[in-house]
Structure formats: C-alpha cells, structure tokens
Design brief:
There is one protein chain. It is elongated and about 65 Å long. The longest helix has 20 residues. The protein has an eight-stranded mixed β-sheet, sandwiched between helices. The chain is of the alpha/beta class. Helices cover 52% and strands 16% of the residues. It binds NADP nicotinamide-adenine-dinucleotide phosphate (NAP). NADP nicotinamide-adenine-dinucleotide phosphate binds next to α1 and α4. NADP nicotinamide-adenine-dinucleotide phosphate (NAP) binds next to α1 and α4.
Length: 261
C-alpha cells in the first residue's frame, strides 16, 4: 500500500487526505501546526494516522505532500530535509517553484509541484503537475493520488503562474459570475432563492454540456438570431465582459509571478 504523508490538513491537504482515506488504497499519516486539527482528522477518518510532528510524517511515508501556506513551506522543508532520501516531496503551494524547494533538500531529491483548486473538496478539482528530473519517476503515482480529488494533467512549470490564475483562482471567478447573475435576477423581481437555484442549475448543467462540446457551440445553440441571448451577449461585450476576463487572468498571472519572487 502506498504510504502517503500529508503535512497541513487545511482546505487542500484535508480534502486530499479525506479522499485518499476513503479510497482505502493508501496508508496515511498527517500532521498540522494546529495539532488538534490533525488529531481530530485522524479520529474522523479510517486508516489515517496522526503524527505529532512533521518529521514523523516524513519518516513514515514514501510520498510527502506539503500542503501549508507558501510562506510556511521553507520552514517545513528545513524540518524534514534529513528524512526525504529515496522519497518524493510534493508541494501544492502557489508560487513556490521547484528550484526553491529542491534547494532546501539534499541534492537529487525528487520534487513535484501540483497546483490544485478548491473544487478538490467535492472531488471535482482540477490540477496540474510538474516534476524535476528525479521526481519524474513519481509522476504516475502522484497523478493517481490527485486523481482522487479531480482531473490531473501534466504541465511545464513555466506555465504554472498562468494555470494558477486560470483554475487555481477560477472558482472565485465563477462564484463572482454566479453572484452577479443572482443579483441581476433579483433586480428583475425574481425571489432570491429561486434566482439562486436557477443560476446554480444553469452553471451545473452548462458544465455538463461543455464536457463534450466547445464553448462556442453551446453559445451558438442558445443564441437564436435576433433573440434575447444575442441582445444580452452584445450588451455584455459592449460593457467589456471578455476584456475584463482577460485583464483579470493577466493580473492574477502577474501577481503569482510577483509572489514567487
Ligand atoms: N485554497 C485554495 O484554493 C488553493 C488552491 C491552490 C493551491 N493552494 C495552496 O495550497 C496550500 C494550502 O492552502 P490551504 O488553502 O489548504 O491552506 P490552509 O487551509 O490554511 O491549510 C494549511 C494548513 O497547514 C498548517 N500548517 C501551517 N504551518 C505548518 C507547519 N509548519 N507544519 C504543519 N502544518 C502547518 C496550517 O495550520 P494553522 O492554520 O494552524 O497555521 C493549516 O491547517 C497553499 O500553499 C496554497 O497556496 C490553495
């Protein structure tokens, strides 16, 4: 059985640990700066062992996932560096690049970087993964692990800032769009709860449609010549809808680069 350690059982680490535990395919050990959180996690999930410190997690695992905030990564790596020989380190931290991780570990350490998103909490996440030379051997195992919380693809690390902007922050864009639609419905007189259900259902259904057809096909199916959708899309475009999305993703990409230093 794959021995996986997870350091930091917050939103991302906790979602991953919960799904891996439920699969029954992994032997898990978890730790957290807030010890009680990791202890409670291990009590609530079968086959999850609590460790009182990160070194113990590293010692009892073959793949070690570092799921702490970016500014805590260096400290975690320093604490476990002596225990990572022959193992893989997987970081999910935004903006912390592979050389910055391997630079804090013994030479030749296997390092992988994964950029997930918060949809992992419901098993419908999207993630990209990159590895250094030593980490490449672990790619299939790590992709299988993250496959338990969603869809995983390989992507060169040079594109991680753009991916962070696209799908890492993506759920917030969709949520903003959903909220704007609900407000527009309320403004037009639709009761808030009805508007919310209509918008949620529309987003969910459209996501299913988009699985096997291109976005422009879905748009064209709804956009009857001379109809209401055409009127809406032209008005939205005049107000700069597409331009705003380009600007937002570009700003997030630049911010991700800045955070990486
Ligand atoms: N949330 C997202 O949408 C998202 C998307 C993509 C990538 N990420 C990346 O995923 C990482 C985790 O984010 P998150 O949202 O899951 O954060 P989070 O909910 O704050 O979880 C991080 C956990 O790690 C713990 N921790 C901090 N320092 C530690 C240490 N030295 N040893 C062990 N545990 C420690 C924290 O404990 P305390 O709370 O007690 O400090 C917390 O429980 C981040 O680097 C982020 O960039 C997040």
């Amino acid at each position: 059985m794959e021995r996986v350690g997870i350091i930091g059982v917050g939103r991302i680490g906790g979602s991953l640990a919960a799904r891996l535990a439920a699969s029954g395919e992994f032997e898990l050990t978890v730790s957290d700066a807030y010890e009680e959180q990791a202890r409670r996690f291990s009590q609530e999930h079968q086959r999850v062992r609590f460790a009182s410190d990160n070194l113990e997690v590293a010692h009892s695992s073959d793949v070690i996932v570092v799921a702490v905030k970016p500014w805590d990564v260096a400290m975690v790596l320093e604490g476990i560096a002596g225990e990572v020989g022959g193992k893989a380190i997987v970081s999910v931290a935004a903006g912390v690049q592979i050389p910055a991780i391997s630079g804090r570990l013994p030479e030749g350490a296997a390092v992988l970087r994964v950029m997930p998103n918060v949809c992992a909490a419901v098993g419908r996440g999207s993630a990209v993964v990159a590895a250094n030379e030593a980490g490449e051997a672990y790619l299939p195992r790590v992709m299988k692990m993250f496959g338990h919380v969603g869809d995983v693809m390989e992507l060169p690390e040079r594109l991680f800032d753009a991916a962070t902007a696209l799908h890492g922050s993506g759920p917030a864009y969709v949520a903003l769009f959903a909220d704007s639609l609900v407000q527009a419905g309320v403004r037009a007189g639709i009761p808030r709860e009805v508007a919310r259900r209509l918008v949620n259902g529309t987003i969910e259904g459209t996501a299913v449609l988009l699985k096997d057809r291109a976005a422009h096909q879905v748009r064209d199916e709804v956009m009857t010549p001379g109809g209401t959708t055409a009127a809406a899309l032209v008005a939205m475009e005049k107000a700069g809808f597409v331009g705003a999305i380009h600007d937002g993703v570009e700003a997030a990409t630049e911010q991700s680069r800045r955070l990486a230093g």
